[in-house]
């Protein structure tokens, strides 16, 4: 019940009383009672003849009336009017109503005065069915069961009496449906392997069931196949065989999984296969234990894995031609083969492969490598030991060096994945026997388990006997010359120059390209450059080339006999304009014709850069009076930049002449072009 009061004269009160009488859940409405009265105030009691008027409005429903008189000498309160109205709730069951009451004393007759009273009243909510729950997840899926979890939402005014979860084989929940009471977590059992299942949920309160929630779906996996074999074949590969699972609904293939540990956390490889029952795995590193397991695949993904099997892979070394492993390999490191190296190829070239892996941290010393002892040498004769090597991927060991025991060691060479020469060692045999070695150049730190400690192929290994008319190691070379020739040789080797000044002092000048730019001259207005009054320029055709004859000195497909090929590239537009200007180029390419398109593209770029004559500036004349400080500082040998007709020329002053008159001082600079690094502007 709610009372709303307002004061009248002499302490009298106008009161509007609102009550909630009955509610109709089906009609979604409440019967509201009301009464409007005046309560006596001070004194013996007011009285007056009428008429006097009153009115109310309850949630939009009006009522009104009048009384002919009042006499509070004989009662304590006066009921002006009362009644009931039915008010509807909103869709969620809520109702808040606005109420008002008024008293018109008709002051011509009355003594209480006028008044208004009222306010908002909120009534009890009429409960509704709950909101639909929210799915959380499907998990713990096996070949015959799954777990479904959800959470409830608003109960809409009435407590939840029951939750239900439902599972079916279609999104309409019409095939193979199961409906179970739930507390928010439900496990559905006896599912058919290989099928996709949908799940949903709902709740119930005193008003009925909520709508079904949205649905989730998942595929119930197939049972695991049986891995029946995981063995090495005669080719050095591991072969897996298995039998199918007991149920094959929706089977589309299998996944074979390999790893370097029983937890399948290291070196994992996955092979997604068609509906086959065997697979051969190639390219594995020898000397390692490999773990394998297999699972069925369906449209829903990979299903349960089989029991694992493991096998040690040991490769065959092949014909090693007398080469052996040398040095002590630490215990955590193992090789692909028992011998520590194997015969193989790199491309089409025969090679000796050194491949090792590590199960833990260690250091591989620089005494480790391969070696071979040769006999049949002739004491006193000169020999050359040479070899090349190529890395596979990026192993930890990358630097190697040649060594002839008792003679010398070649410099270290850092290898890459392209064939790289290890250099050579020339020596004079002291005996008929020699031991050749290829060793690590530096110790290799292995920080932990690694699949690639060593992955190197040694190839093109040769021991050559050197025959000369005079032992090269005993020959002396003597160069006799005068001091001027010595200066020429020294300066020409670095592009410098020298001269003897008038004072008799010999002076050396740096190469022009190493000098700073002394001044910049331009034919366009430029605040950072000087102007000139005349220029001598022409087109240089000496460097023009529009026909390129390329001769490749190669070998035939057997790589035994010399076979040369010729390729001609021309720039026809340049030939038409300037005549034929031919140059020759000699190459030594590995491949056979037709060559890769990159060669013709490179030759085309060479011609494009040289098929037009170059504009060269030979002489420059300036007015020295425009900048006396700059003009006085110019000297032979200085480097300057000249801009003419969009060409930027890097030049060196080779001569200066002055024309000095009483009213004018002109300087002529003879120039030698250095290069044109900027191109056309």
Automatic annotation (TrEMBL):
Keyword field: Carbohydrate metabolism, Glycosidase, Hydrolase, Polysaccharide degradation, Repeat
SUPFAM superfamilies named in the record: Fibronectin type III (SSF49265)
GO biological process, one term: polysaccharide catabolic process
Keyword set includes Flavoprotein: no
InterPro entries recorded: FN3_dom, FN3_sf, Ig-like_fold, Striated_Muscle_Regulatory
Domain Fibronectin type-III: 132-223, 224-317
GO MF annotation: an example: hydrolase activity, acting on glycosyl bonds
Glycoprotein listed as a keyword: no
SMART domains: FN3 (SM00060)
PANTHER family referenced in this protein's UniProt entry, alphabetically: NEURONAL IGCAM-RELATED, TITIN
Name of the featured protein: Fibronectin type-III domain-containing protein
Organism: Candidatus Lumbricidiphila eiseniae
